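Q: My labmate handed me this sequence with no annotations at all. I'd like to see what the chain might look like in three dimensions before we decide whether it's worth expressing. Could you predict it?
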Amino acid sequence: MSRVTILFDNFPNTDGYPTLWGFSVLVQTPHAALLFDTGSNGRILMRNIAKLGINLKAVDGLFISHPHWDHIGGIDSVLEANPRLNLFLPHSLSPLYIRDLKRLSGGVTVVKESPTKLGPNFYSTGVTGEPGEHAAVFDLGEEILVITGCAHPGVESVVQKALEITGKPVGLLVGGFHLLRANDTTVRQTALRLQQLGIRRLCPTHCTGESADEIFAEIFGAGHEAGGVGREILL
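A: Here is what I predict for the chain of 235 residues:
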């Protein structure tokens, strides 16, 4: 069994979790445990991690989707708790920052434009768009899990790349879809396109926007998963 737990988000799923603008999830599969992004604030991230009973020393790696502040703000706190973490970073991060993170971690893999295998059943879509973002893809056997930070290159494009990498359907898509300022027509077209791409379940959160989330819930019905800090989704 695999599990996705939302650690940092703009809103809570369960009362009692502090929230700020940003995004972070923990992905646990039979092969590894991976932290995806670190939100905007390390103190808030660590409070939520502790409240959820998560042991960061048991986490294998940290995947950073892109260099925006609301996804990298908690890196120092995470590495203080587990300096042995292997980091998977987009080349869009500052070279000086990457240099420093090499000194502070268990190792760094810098991902460029090409889709890249990062470990057993674990891939990057490759860094594209502005500011230079990649998504994480986990092969779970018959289907895949896709995690996106903000989907700046376009969430449809992210999913298409994931399908090309594995040739398997998306069982679950989680993350920010970058539709906060999009009109309803654009959101509806995006949701229908994702449905056509065969996504079984999705959890739109962070920069997706409340209005857009309602449209996804309408179109995907039971395939729509609520987001927010504290939410756990089983696969």
